[in-house]
TrEMBL record:
<keyword id="KW-0496">Mitochondrion</keyword>
<dbReference type="InterPro" id="IPR000544">
    <property type="entry name" value="Octanoyltransferase"/>
</dbReference>
<feature type="site" description="Lowers pKa of active site Cys">
    <location>
        <position position="150"/>
    </location>
</feature>
<feature type="domain" description="BPL/LPL catalytic">
    <location>
        <begin position="43"/>
        <end position="223"/>
    </location>
</feature>
<keyword id="KW-0012">Acyltransferase</keyword>
<comment type="pathway">
    <text>Protein modification; protein lipoylation via endogenous pathway; protein N(6)-(lipoyl)lysine from octanoyl-[acyl-carrier-protein]: step 1/2.</text>
</comment>
<dbReference type="Pfam" id="PF21948">
    <property type="entry name" value="LplA-B_cat"/>
</dbReference>
<comment type="function">
    <text>Catalyzes the transfer of endogenously produced octanoic acid from octanoyl-acyl-carrier-protein onto the lipoyl domains of lipoate-dependent enzymes. Lipoyl-ACP can also act as a substrate although octanoyl-ACP is likely to be the physiological substrate.</text>
</comment>
<feature type="active site" description="Acyl-thioester intermediate">
    <location>
        <position position="184"/>
    </location>
</feature>
<dbReference type="GO" id="GO:0005739">
    <property type="term" value="C:mitochondrion"/>
</dbReference>
<feature type="binding site">
    <location>
        <begin position="87"/>
        <end position="94"/>
    </location>
    <ligand>
        <name>substrate</name>
    </ligand>
</feature>
<comment type="similarity">
    <text>Belongs to the LipB family.</text>
</comment>
<protein>
    <recommendedName>
        <fullName>Octanoyl-[acyl-carrier-protein]:protein N-octanoyltransferase LIPT2, mitochondrial</fullName>
        <ecNumber>2.3.1.181</ecNumber>
    </recommendedName>
</protein>
<dbReference type="InterPro" id="IPR020605">
    <property type="entry name" value="Octanoyltransferase_CS"/>
</dbReference>
<keyword id="KW-0808">Transferase</keyword>
<dbReference type="GO" id="GO:0033819">
    <property type="term" value="F:lipoyl(octanoyl) transferase activity"/>
</dbReference>
<dbReference type="InterPro" id="IPR004143">
    <property type="entry name" value="BPL_LPL_catalytic"/>
</dbReference>
Amino acid sequence: MPFLKPVIEVVNLGRISYGEGLQAQRRFIRRHLNALSQCSTAGSPLNALLLCEHQPVYTIGIRTARYPIEEEERLKQLGAEFYRADRGGLITFHGPGQLVCYPILNLAHFRKSVRWYVGELERTVIQLCHRFGINGETSPDTGVWVRDEKICAIGIHCGRYITSHGLALNCNTDLHWFSHITPCGIEGKGVTSLSQTLKREVTVSEAMEPFLETFAEQFNCLLRR
């Protein structure tokens, strides 16, 4: 019997608020959990890739047990929202010009390893960078880097092997937003984008199709549009 590749539904949410992104993730997580409780995988694909851009928002992860309320208020005064999320990682920024991908996957359909999963996300973005002629690399710090500048942040949550949150690839993001924080809590390193690295405008729309192609190759899956 031939091996059947997992099928992943691609859902383009457009430009939305971070709160709307959280709600969308919860809906697709619930779909997985309902199937698990009924011991059923029949019907439409349960795995999904949620793609979006966010309105300006700063978020912190579960590693930040306490974040000063005065710092939260300072960031809000810049015109951004602020959220405390249940993902891994420290503080980061999401906004227009950034391709955000939330894979809502059951790792039982792939490989039951969070370490493997994060590595596959990194390798997906590295292959995407190569398609644009950029040498993307990993480092001891999670994410994808171009020398000492992060081009893609990764922060995930995984419960019962169901993944949520994901990655944020800077395409033509206004990088000035990052100057108000220490991105991901990493001192002495910067942030870059496809546009800044290539010295030309690279939009989210331009990056989306090659991203989906590299994701399908790296995860050995079929994408349903």
